[in-house]
Amino acid sequence: MTMSTSSPRSSAAVSRGAVLLLIVAIVLVALNLRPALTSIGPLLGTVSAALNLDSATASLVTTLPVMCLGLFGPAAPMLARRIGVPAAAVVALVMIAVGVVLRGFFGPAGLFAGSLLGGAGIGIAGVLLPGVVKQAFPDKAGLLTGIYTMALCGGAAIAAGVTAPIAEASGSWAVALGVWAIPALLAAAVWWPAARHLDTRAGHRPNTGTRLLTSPLAWSITLFMGLQSSLAYSVFGWLPSILQDRGVSVVMSGLVVSVSLLVQTVSALFVPVLAARRRNQQLWVLGIMLCTIAGMLGMMWGPIATMWPWAVVLGIGQGGCFALALVMIVLRSGDAMTAARLSGMAQSVGYTLAALGPLAIGLIHEITGGWSLVAWLLTGIGLVALTNGLIAARDRTL
């Protein structure tokens, strides 16, 4: 594997060790793109009681970071142009680290300020990674996208699983939330020496962003990213409640979601690697979207005895959806800066849509008192995502 870059200094041959270090750095950055989101859930009740938050206020703690992913994603290309991609990623990682510390140790104001800052950092770093992959590994886009998507899912699963035990062992929920600053700072320390020779500013074309806004292909990719993300956050936010209403215990419903999340790490690795070998990814989009829709409906309407296999099907579908959305950003882009700008567009709009999904489900459930209309809503979102995914998967380049 060789690493190609756009500047004369970095386009020279580099050692295998430098390539491996960059891959490790990408993995470490990806590992830090979800713990700030998934670590708060297990402790939300404890945090709310400690800070005297009502349920409506507490819900903002989980919604605000997701909204920030969309609101601050567009800042990534601008920051990269000003200071370069390596430095921009370091800034994003420091924002994540400071954000998780603020959440734990500075009361209600720190909780919300930290959620805002951490979500902004995640939004910026997440937008930058596809451009780095396009620039440094243009011939291995599927493999590298699969690796960092698997790391992203793995980070989410780890944080969801170990934050509560950390709180119990330390006797402090603040420590359990703040501890996630350590891997963020570690990632920054490894990233800078590994990626400091990369510089996508040289490949910037000022009118790229304008062209993307008028491109049907760019909007198809954006809607696929946004709608599949909406399904993912809707499922993670409401599936435990759905299962509990069907008679599943609180502990067991959480375990089902955890299993589905762990399955995502496998499909997130292999789906983009295999899909990138084809010039057209439509069959892959069809397969993983049908798995997602079938998994959701199976969990909601199938016999309780079948919830475990449906959880696996759902995990395969959702892990593959997210990885395919990311790899199509890389495959459909003609150069690294286009990939960075498309990533910003897709993720900024996408995560805004993703935050609206759980909100709509909560309102529908409150009005109807059941889940039937929710199931139809999720199915409709899935079908629209499928349509846009099939358009985005055609062999074309921006």
UniProtKB/TrEMBL annotation:
<feature type="transmembrane region" description="Helical">
    <location>
        <begin position="87"/>
        <end position="106"/>
    </location>
</feature>
<dbReference type="GO" id="GO:0022857">
    <property type="term" value="F:transmembrane transporter activity"/>
</dbReference>
<protein>
    <submittedName>
        <fullName>MFS transporter</fullName>
    </submittedName>
</protein>
<feature type="transmembrane region" description="Helical">
    <location>
        <begin position="248"/>
        <end position="271"/>
    </location>
</feature>
<keyword id="KW-1133">Transmembrane helix</keyword>
<feature type="transmembrane region" description="Helical">
    <location>
        <begin position="307"/>
        <end position="330"/>
    </location>
</feature>
<feature type="transmembrane region" description="Helical">
    <location>
        <begin position="370"/>
        <end position="393"/>
    </location>
</feature>
<dbReference type="InterPro" id="IPR036259">
    <property type="entry name" value="MFS_trans_sf"/>
</dbReference>
<keyword id="KW-0812">Transmembrane</keyword>
<keyword id="KW-0472">Membrane</keyword>
<dbReference type="InterPro" id="IPR020846">
    <property type="entry name" value="MFS_dom"/>
</dbReference>
<dbReference type="Pfam" id="PF07690">
    <property type="entry name" value="MFS_1"/>
</dbReference>
<feature type="domain" description="Major facilitator superfamily (MFS) profile">
    <location>
        <begin position="214"/>
        <end position="398"/>
    </location>
</feature>
<feature type="transmembrane region" description="Helical">
    <location>
        <begin position="59"/>
        <end position="80"/>
    </location>
</feature>
<feature type="transmembrane region" description="Helical">
    <location>
        <begin position="173"/>
        <end position="195"/>
    </location>
</feature>
<feature type="transmembrane region" description="Helical">
    <location>
        <begin position="145"/>
        <end position="167"/>
    </location>
</feature>
<dbReference type="InterPro" id="IPR052524">
    <property type="entry name" value="MFS_Cyanate_Porter"/>
</dbReference>
<dbReference type="InterPro" id="IPR011701">
    <property type="entry name" value="MFS"/>
</dbReference>
<feature type="transmembrane region" description="Helical">
    <location>
        <begin position="283"/>
        <end position="301"/>
    </location>
</feature>
<feature type="transmembrane region" description="Helical">
    <location>
        <begin position="342"/>
        <end position="364"/>
    </location>
</feature>
<feature type="transmembrane region" description="Helical">
    <location>
        <begin position="216"/>
        <end position="236"/>
    </location>
</feature>
<feature type="transmembrane region" description="Helical">
    <location>
        <begin position="112"/>
        <end position="133"/>
    </location>
</feature>
